[in-house]
Amino acid sequence: MTAATNMSPTEADRTLLRSPGLGQFRKTPFRLLRLPTNATAKQAVWQCDKALARARVGMTLPDPDPAPWLPPGDEIEIQEAAQTMESPLARLVEQLLWFDVIDDADGGALLSALTNADGTALRAYLNLQREGASMAHQVNQANLRLLLGFSSLREVGPTIVAAQTAAQTAALAWQDRAGLSLVEDPHKVIRATGALLGNQSVWAWLLGEGVAKWGELLASPQFTEHVKMKIAALGDELLGADDTEAVITALRTRLADLIVGETKTEMAQGRVGNVGHLSSIAGKSKIDAETWLVAFRPLKTQFQSELAELAPDAETGNGVVEDVAAYLDRLSTLAARWRPLDEAQLLGLSALIDEAVGEGFGKLRSISREKQLDARFKEVIDKVGAIAHSPSIKERLKAYHERLADVQKAMCHFCGKRELEASSCASVSSQMETGREYYGNTTRIHYQVGARPVARCPRCATMHGYLKTVGSIAFYTLSASVVLFGLIHPATWFKSVSMGAGAALVGLGVLVAWGLGFAAREIAAGIITPKGERRVGDYMSSSAVEGLRADGFVSMKYDFRHNAWELVNKHGVKARHGGGGGDGAEVLKTLFYIGLFIAAVALKVCARH
Amino acid sequence: MSTIDYGIDLGTTNSALARQEGRQQRLLPGPDGDPLLPSAIQVLASGEIVVGAKAKAMLDIDPANTSIEFKRLMGTGEKKRFPASGREYTPEELSAEVLRTLAARAIAVDGEAPRAAVITIPAMFQLPQCDATRRAAALAGIEHAPLLQEPIAAAIAHSGTGEVRDGSWLVYDLGGGTFDISLVRCKDGRLQVIDHDGDNHLGGRDFDRAIARKATDLIRAEGKLGDFKRTDPANEGAYAKIKVESERVRLALSGVTHDKFSIPDLGKGASVAFDLDRDGLEELLVPLVERTTALCIKILKRNRVEAAELSGLVMVGGPTLTPCVARQIHFDVGVEAKHYVDPMTIVARGAALFASTQRLPATMRKKRVGAAIELHLEYEAMTTDPAPLIVGKVTSPVPPPPGLKITVERDDGQFRAPLSAVQPNGAFAIDLRLNPSQLNVFKVGAVDGMGNPLATEPDTIKLMHGFSIARPPLSQSVGIMLANNNVHWYLRKGVVLPARQTMTHTTTLSLKRGQSGEAIHVPLIQGESTRADRNKVIGVLHIHADKISRDVPEGSTVEVTIAVDESAQTTGRAYVPALDQWFEEVVRFDLETKPANEVGKALSDQKDRLKKLEEMADELDEEDISSVSEEKNDPRIREVEALLEEGDRDSIDLADQMVRMMSQDLDHAEDGGKKNRLANELEEIRQRASDVINADGEPGDKRQLATLLVEADKALARGDLDQVESKIDDIRSLNMTVMTRQPWFWEGYLAYLMKEAERLGLMGLTKKHFERGVAAIQRKDYHEVPGVCREIVQMFPSEERARVSSAIRSDVK
User: With b meaning 16 or more CB within 10 Å and e meaning fewer, what string describes A545-578?
Assistant: First the structure.
């Protein structure tokens, strides 16, 4: 391979030569060979021979160029043009995408305006609105818009001044409202007319109208008849009336390819704004979505590759949530950038984003259940819903949230990581007065009692059981020590105090022992409760308390023994409010307090005697 | 002489040279008087090369040092070794010897060998094969060798020699090694190839192969030569004899009704002999002929032409003389097949006629000494235009003398063009008038400002009126292979040559100046399938990194232009805007050849695919799929297997091509009814998922199903089949999720696994697990059952695991 330099046409030339839209008008046989639309294939071949012979000695055809602002054709293009004329279907498509100045009453003016690149005359032709205009005139109107639109996009050709109609002028009239001068709905006017326009809007306006007019033509029965007539006029045995639909389909496909080709060029140049305009033009045309989808499909790969670059790295592990979060952030930025490019959803960008979102969602769902209950996880998963376009993904997310909430309800309130187990739940109970009845000196108070389980897993139940034991041991040990000390050394204690005060002192000692027991439990709880989990005493935030409060209960009684809820189920709520039996430990505890009281009284009596 | 005039038919079996003389073509005979030169070469121990009939006669005596049918290997890297001399030759070197021998025949006519000749190639030749043909011509001393597709040459000969009839017809060109079918039409004297198709690996040789296979089966049955493998060098001589005898019998049966295939001595006391009559031959050949008629029908269908609309079918090539061919064509295609011109020489004749319209390059023209004015003239030598234009430029002296005018007068004196003034840049243009349907000769001259006549070079020009030939179309699309097995097409089949296309690519690596390796390396393919691997890799598009003038960042654009001219000469150039640098010759041809094991694997894959498709067709009653029936593919599968068994390069290439064709048919069947299939699939999953989710799903599941179904319906309505597929997958997944939440699902699945374990004799191994599962179900502990099921599946043999796991997808309720 050898390298050479300085052989290149300029960047602008290359852009012109490679513009698919301009290429349609630049390379059409009717321009390159200066043929009228009713020329025969034979005439085209003869004219091709002449054009080639002339081109080889540096001469051009004597007839004027009907689009002089476009680069001339080279030898290969001239030969291709002649060959196109020999293929009846291809020729007819080219013919219909060129200017039929023979059957258009204003064809002469149009041709003159084109050959002189006279912007004003061309604008005047665009403004013509003839009642019952011939099909050739309508086709010319659409084609002229396409030619001028593509030219304007590439910044070549005659300048089209967007002359305002009377109606437009009226629409642009300034109004005085509350001391402010304003134009009512200026965007509407700009969209409709291209007035007050920069170049960008001019091409978008012209192309938009051109494609829309073609969309209408392709759908109209009159145009079908027109094509049939043209087929008959060609008189080629390879193309019959049966091929009318094939011609219309070919035209439809060609128009789509032209717009998509320009879109691709604009994408390659990084002009995303123009990409949006072009896809919007496609979306607003009456050409069916399927044609556009097929035409736009090749572009999808470019977007796909952009998406692929964003893909999250981590497959598993703790980094997944953060990786997916970062991925979703990038995706969100991309989606925001893409949204205006594909308002008509012909590029399928929404589907691509949804696919990517689905991938991120899938990764999030694959992580462990306990991590899914983290606040950060919820935050990240909410992003999924914010980015997704498809209602089904949003529904999926909603359903997922519901399930997650259910799961959360089923999770241990304390650790939040493991599922609850009924036999391990703590309980919270309450009672409230519902009414009083007075019977003489007797008052009967009615209470409503309520209890709910505080969701707890076996591990937390065991841990809480241990903490309870720690507290109880501390309390009982210290209380017993105080009482025993009082019994063994009554003289020391009660020498200078009365019996009553001594007993009170013992009582105080027991109270301190209770406080120390509580403190011991709290200290142990602080040590053994894993970070991020709720401590044993943190039950007020549980759904059980919320539920009771919602039912009107105020004061709460909390039981965190390992089988507290089982006991409620077994003995009823009243057990927790003095009405029921309670378990053995409760009886022992009661007996213990009674014992302490008797011991204190006995101590007092002994001291006195 | 200002036109090429020589046409060469470089055939697989025979070659010929013709020269256009006036309106006639003359076939140039060899020393033996035969215009046909067998394309056979023998290399003697001394290194001397024998070409033609003598070499062919040595095929069964000295097969190791004799080579035939090397045209089929053109463009590949294969080399033929001749052990006696120890020399190796590429297919193009061998073809060059044939061309050299043909060129020598011209010495007798012109006194010197032609430096330019039109050489014919099969229409379905791929670009590297065309390139190799051009190289062969250059090696033979033919400096200028435009290539012409054989069917076009035949059509030209058919149309150009007699009275030109308007109409369309098929040119059925069955050569020694290739088959081409072209739809051509003539309108107002203009000959145009509308479309063509073909098979690069089907020809008379395959007819002989069919007969030879019958012989080898008998030899194997006899057992004296063991399994009689073709790849065994010891059998080379025996195979050569079989080949020669097969061809003899086939040709003989064109004239007689029955003949005897007989080789009395194959070595080790083995022999083979059997009677073959025309019916027997037909039985062997009909499957091959049917492959050709299928292509005839395909090309007519593609162009919406009815057989009744055709003006006829022109048969070209020696194998078409086989009696059953014409009959089978008439039976299958419904058109009468005829030999309008001698089928063995029609291509050479057409090539010569075409050559007479091709002007020699200026450097090769013989110049008249003493001409005052030298002209460069531009005109079409063959035209239907009654008033063509001749345009020219004075090339000497420069600038032209002031007041110079050019004169042109027809030699019959009936037309004289007005004097044409030469422009200051030397250019001039003159309108001519031609006598219709004949050769028109014009005298060219000049007059100076004083009116004095001046001699010009050239002083005469010839234009043939009434017939012209449209440029040939590209026979197979050219594109590049993308990473995702898609294709990016540069030039599509049917585009008229010359053609060119520019595409933009991006670099995937940043490139440092002076770095070694290739900045761009993209496989270049030729074929028609949108799946890249179904096409043939013909080379690469490459740019050497060491040629870049400075560093190029990743993602830089590279504009590559590929151009193919009328004679399939391909050029590629690339422009890197970031460097503002052009790179020439970026196309490197390297025709892909696959080893036998790869082709075998591909065949096995396609067989599996076919089986699946047939199952699907049964389920869906899908017409597109049903068309790829086993009956249609079975013979092809057997043929590929037989070819792989034969094991030589040509057979493997043929097998590879057949597998690719099968793959494409299957692709077509799969893609054809995709919309219907997806609609059916959607309905099916709609029904199933609705049943499950409405009965057992949560409200969220129901809402999801409803939105998914709406989205799927919308996508189907707008023809977005990718979306439909995606939505069907989503629905299936939702259905699965809901099902796996249901106790009945796990009960059913456990029962299914139990049945499978029993069938596979795994009950002993899995008993405890099943007991655990059953116990869990009894105590309604549905959390445990999935785990138990998973453990059981793991205990299944690996080949069964996927099946029983996938059963989870079906409704096991």
Answer: beebeeeebeebebbbbbbbbbbbbeebbbbbee
Within 10 Å of residue A80's Cβ, how many Cβ atoms?
A: 23
Dmax over Cα atoms in chain B, in whole Å? 123
pLDDT confidence bin for A579, thresholds 50/70/90: very low
- Give the nearest chain B residue to A50 (CA atoms): B389
Residue A94's pLDDT is 96
Distance (Å, rounded) from C-alpha B706 to C-alpha B719?
A: 20
Distance CA B719, CA A290 (A): 6
* Beta-sheet pairing, B272-277 with B312-316: unpaired
ipTM for this prediction: 0.74
How far away is chain B from the Cα of A121, in angstroms, using its nearest Cα?
A: 35
- Residue A441 amino acid letter: N
Is the Cβ–Cβ distance between B656 and B201 less than 8 Å?
no
Å from A410 to nearest chain B CA? Answer: 14
Tell me the C-alpha distance between B353 and B18, whole Å: 9
Which residue type is seen at B540?
Answer: V
Residue B194: list chain A partners with CB under 8 A.
238
DSSP at B76: S
From the list A46, A237, A396, the residue facing B704 with the nearest CB is A396
Residue B279 token pair: 């019916």
Tokens of A213: 């007019």
Q: Which of A3, A50, A242 sits opposite B582 (nearest CB)?
A: A3
Cα dist. A201→A121, A190, A204, A268, B683 in Å?
Answer: 20, 8, 5, 20, 46
Q: Do B39 and B69 meet the contact criterion of CB atoms below 8 Å apart?
A: yes
Q: Do A57 and B392 touch (CB under 8 A)?
A: yes
B240 Cα to chain A: minimum distance (Å): 43
How far does CA B405 lie from the centroid of its chain? 51
Cβ atoms of A129 and A82 within 8 Å: the answer is: no
| Candidate from A455-459, B107-111, B632-636 with smallest mean pLDDT | B632-636
Per-residue model confidence (pLDDT) at position B810: 40
- Tokens (6 digits) for A205: 């306006």
Inform me whether the pLDDT recorded for A3 exceeds 50: no
**Do B390 and A4 make contact, defined as CB atoms within 8 angstroms?**
no
SS3 for A52-114 is HHHHHCCCCCCCCCCCCCCCCCCHHHHHHHHHHHHCHHHHHHHHHCCCCCCCCCCHHHHHHHH
| Contact state of B388 with A351 under an 8 Å Cβ cutoff | no
CA proximity to A68, closest of A136, A122, A116, A118: A116
Cα of B410 to nearest chain A Cα, Å: 19
Measured between CA atoms, the residue of chain A closest to residue B386 is: A46
CA B537 to chain centre: 11
The string of pLDDT tens digits covering residues B617-627 is: 655 555 554 55
Element holding B348 (H helix, E strand): helix B346-355
What radius of gyration do chain A's Cα atoms show? 44
